[in-house]
Amino acid sequence: MSADTHLPKDAARPAGGTELIRFDRVTKRFGSHTVLDALDFTVSAGKHVTLIGPSGSGKTTILRLLMTLLTPDEGTIKVGDAFLTHEEKDGRLIPAGEKHIREVRKNIGMVFQQFNLFPNMKVLRNITEAPVHVLGLGKDEAEERARGLLDLVGLTAHLDKYPTQLSGGQQQRVAIARALAMRPQVLLLDEVTSALDPELVAGVLDVLRDIARTTDITMLCVTHEMSFARDISDDVLMFDAGRVIESGAPEKIFTDPEHERTREFLGAVL
Ligand code: ADP
User: Fold this and answer.
1) Is 32's C-beta closer than 6 angstroms to any atom of ligand 1?
2) What are phi and psi of 128, to 5 degrees?
3) DSSP class of residue 55?
């Protein structure tokens, strides 16, 4: 069954091509360490953008800023019409209020390296919990949505199990279904296969390829799986030391990179 059966195009979702995410001169420091340095980039609705680059170059920090788990020190972050932070004329940073933050969090789904499922809840309830308690969906409707998503990720037979009864790859597929159950505009994927045994990676990547191919969800993805990045990306951003040093279509970045650092990085990971 195709993914769009379960993810009907949402009337509230911005039309393809509309700018959905904007970073304007975003700086993030931890102590004296500048992790992101006046970073600019934009993502249009419906696009699949992959962030690549050496460990420590600031990729995960970007996802955490978008999830409002961190606040930048300078600059503007905008998601749709909502400002997460913006600077006034005197350079003072104005963080978004609680209401705004809740709104943005509802529109962004995140899947982490370590699955982070609720261990005390069965698979079905892991997926229905937020739609019921955050979106106010009725239990029946939330369960119907969850069953559809479990079908999409190939886990219908496991809906009555606890997370610990599943393999890592299965748990990660539940985490993907759980993120999608909120019908977010944006799916953030943070090295979602790096904690998995090698034989479980392909199943998770296949599910994500299917979602990228058959839905209009915007994806921002940090990954070391270069062939996956090549398959799903509209744009690849190559990071080094908190800056985008090169960006473009995957065919260009992976076969004919401009920057020496990109060549070195790809030489090491491919
Ligand atoms: P990447 O995802 O590219 O590997 P990260 O965004 O995770 O990079 O980290 C960038 C840098 O910021 C790293 O040097 C990391 O140690 C540092 N860092 C990340 N989070 C914190 C934190 N909460 N406190 C201090 N340093 C951090």
Assistant:
1) no
2) -85, -20
3) T
Residue 58: CB within 6 Å of ligand 1?
Answer: yes
CATH code, domain with 213: 3.40.50.300
| Pick from 9, 11, 4, 12: nearest CA to 148 | 4
Whether residue 60 has its Cβ less than 6 Å from ligand 1: yes
How many Å lie between the centroid of ligand 1 and the Cα of residue 245? Answer: 18
Report how far residue 233's alpha carbon sits from residue 237's, in angstroms, rounded to the nearest whole number. Answer: 10
| Residue that is written with structure tokens 């059966």 in the block | 5
Task: Tally the domains of the chain.
Answer: 1
- Tell me which residue range forms the domain holding 24: 3-107+184-269
pLDDT (tens digit, 0 to 9) for every residue of the chain, 270 residues total? 444 444 544 445 666 679 999 999 999 999 999 999 999 999 999 999 999 999 999 999 999 999 989 999 999 999 987 788 888 878 788 888 888 888 888 889 999 999 999 999 999 999 999 999 999 999 999 999 999 999 999 999 999 999 999 999 999 999 999 999 999 999 999 999 999 999 999 999 999 999 999 988 999 999 999 999 999 999 999 999 999 999 999 999 999 999 999 999 999 987
* 42 inside domain: yes
